[in-house]
Amino acid sequence: MKLSSPSLAAPPARRLVPPSLPFAIFLAAALAAPLVMTTGFQLRLVSLIFIYAILGMGFNVLYGYCGQVSMGHQGFFAIAAYAYALLQSKAGFSALAAFPASLVVCALVALLIGIPLLRLRTHYLAMATLCFGLVVSGVANRWIEVTGGSGGLLIPSLAIGDKPLDRVTLYYMIVAATTIALALQNFIVSGHLGRSLQAIRDDDRAAAALGVNVAAQKLRAFVFSAVLAGVAGVAFAVVNRQVSPGMGEFPVLVSMLTIAVVGGLATRYGPILGAIVVVIAPQFLARFGDLQTLAYGACLLLFLIFVPNGLSGLVAGLAARVRRGRRGRPGLIVEPLASEVAKKGAGR
């Protein structure tokens, strides 16, 4: 008697958590946040969490799912913000028209540099994109007549008619942008494009042999991630009411990489978890004063050692343990069934 017969097979495992539940939790928490915020500073911190989450989602699609290392995405973060400011101040665009136009500028720049750069691989691609980020930062600092130099540019406040938007309304606009970005990311990674990107990440030659247009898919992922970085850049500029060269410099890249590592690469909700840590952790470490950077680096190093798969991996591991606990050990299920089969066989 084989215990692997269909009658003795274990029932298929049910999902412990429905796929839509994390999205519903995120949306409910985002909508309820202003109800528990007591100061404008707290609301600004939560707004920054969602802005950095959008930035992390773009990098997650490009690097986590497609395996393309871009060290210059902070450049798109700055380009879209400068385009948004200049289109209003120099070209007379309204804020409503300047936002999509700035994203078009961002996408065109990504398309222009992506076609030659994505022919490179591994550290060559990383160095080439890093040079792009340095160029953007240098132009922002030195083209004073256009960018305002180190002083940057002021962003006019958003308004409906003659009434400026309050902080809560602006917050909900950022939540809406984050929700759309998250839905797009989840749609992409769960469909044909997502499977193609993962095949390219694992082995681009094998993916090409299977019929994947590697160059086109890499370019799509690059442009999409650049546009999300642009959305985050415009939102950051609107919240701060200013665009500065610091938006295209190295600290933004460090924050983006930290979001990817802490949240978990190639995970759907890792960018949100990573953004929470990146925005909130410095507030707790401020008590260390001049040692804040040292404490931040030490905590990040310990995190890399003990939680290598990020917070998403940690949550998934805990969920798997709960799932195994609910099922029980296999022996406790198979042995009684086997004894029943033996009794039936003896009766025959």
Summarize the structure.
The protein is an all-alpha fold and 348 residues long.
Number of helices: 15
User: How confident is the prediction overall: mean pLDDT?
Assistant: 87
Classify the beta-strand content into a percent band: under 5%
Tell me, what's the shape?
Answer: globular
Sheet with the most strands: spatial strand order? 1-4
Q: Which structural class matches the secondary elements? A: mainly alpha
Q: What about the largest sheet?
A: 2 strands, antiparallel
User: Any low-confidence stretches, pLDDT <50, length ≥5?
Assistant: 1-14, 331-348
Total number of strands = 4
Please give the radius of gyration in angstroms: 24 Å
Membrane topology: Multi-pass membrane protein
Keywords: Cell membrane, Membrane, Transmembrane, Transmembrane helix
Pfam families: BPD_transp_2
InterPro entries: ABC_transp_permease (IPR001851), LivM-like (IPR043428)
